[in-house]
Model the fold of this input.
Amino acid sequence: MAYGLDDRHTIFALATGYGKAAIAVIRISGPNSPRAIESLVGRLPPPRHATFARIMEPRTSAILDHGIVLWFPAPNSFTGEDSAELQVHGARSVVAAILRTLGELEDFRPARPGEFARRSLENGKSDLIAIEALGDLIEAETERQRAFAILQTSGNLQEAAKWWREQLIDALVLIEGELDFSDESEAQQSSASEFRTIVQEILKTLAPLTAGNGKTERLREGLTVLIAGPPNAGKSTLLNAIAKREVAIVSERAGTTRDLIEVKLDLGGFPVNLIDTAGIQKSDDPIEQEGINRALRKSEAADLILWLTPLTEPTLFPPEQFADRTIWHILTKVDQQAETAEAVCRNEKAPEDVSSAARKFKISARTGLNIENLIVRLQEYANENMSVDGSLIVANERQRFAIQMAHEALLASLDENAPLEVVAEELRRACFSLESLMGKVGVENVLDQLFSRFCIGK
Ligand SMILES: Nc1nc2c(ncn2[C@@H]2O[C@H](COP(=O)(O)OP(=O)(O)OP(=O)(O)O)[C@@H](O)[C@H]2O)c(=O)[nH]1
Ligand SMILES: [Mg+2]
Done:
């Protein structure tokens, strides 16, 4: 549902998680926040001071709980509005009683998902890039995802976008000056070269940001690693060994796994989705065939395929559908061949060909041989494919699209044959794209989608 500045209700929500906890935080924001505090606490505490108070039901003066009250007068609050926070005991009954009491106050209503963040954006307390970073921080499950979200909060991209925009406005003034005095051709030439210098300077920092490498998306969603191979190759056994728990059923019967079994892992702080699949072979059994189809379909979205074959049957090659995919070949059950196993043990170091693009590993889930080594390699691979660094971080497709649009307009403005009117129009288009990058214009449709992903109370 769309809602915006015209809705001046005071909103409230539980900002901490639902369920039993030591403490729960209830957030209030809007013009009637002071009235809520006066009604429930009997007085307004000094601004921004944690004050211990009795929280009461206003009509009966019954005590609902004792807790900490914080009062943040506008504009010095997260939303930029008059706001308050109640830190109470985290019992469901306490939270329910306070939320019910707030709901009974006139012009109060429960907040919608992300509504506090949205008000903060609408009141100019934060920009869209910062709100998106906040969204990523709330979603962050692993250490690298957390670090990535914090990196986005550096404000560097906002600073750069602001600076580019200011420079473009200077360039636009030059061009518009020319349009007003278009017959003085000498001045026109010098302004034209000045505006070119400005645009070329901007392009130096902006152009490298236009190319996406999928790393940020992968870091957000997790690296998808598919375990595939013929039936009985030891796929489910490997999944269990890496996950360090019995996730999938293992048996000596070929064709045990039918459905996709997905485990979310944290490998060195990187999120990895490891997926076990049905053994791939020719099958007349429609259920097994459906399992195989699912495995093949899922492989299309995989970043990496681990192709497992038992050491005794190394000639079972991956299906043609995997032809252009990144595949690591893994020979399993090496303990079954005493000679190989001994040689491997004598070598100490894992007999893997790390130089080849198609890495080869020999593993044994039974003896644990090379399992840890494989996990380390997966971690390295995750690092190569998800590490995000640099001072200017383009965090998502929306931001990249805005930068690409600005880039396109800037290149068009440099066209030597373009009349000044067109140059001015292209510069305005670039400014517009930079403003949309920061969420100042043209992003209404994005906002509804973004905030619906936020939790209530954020
Ligand atoms: N000796 C030995 N046996 C293993 C090893 N890994 C798995 N096995 C055995 O091989 C059999 C098949 O293992 P699974 O993990 O179920 O094989 P799978 O590839 O998932 O098989 P499907 O789901 O039927 O396609 C089981 O009896 C396992 O105990 C290993 O490293 N060494
Ligand atoms: Mg299996």
Residues 1-5, 347-357 have pLDDT under 50 and may be disordered. Residues 408 and 430 are 8 Å apart (CA to CA). The longest helix spans residues 156-180.
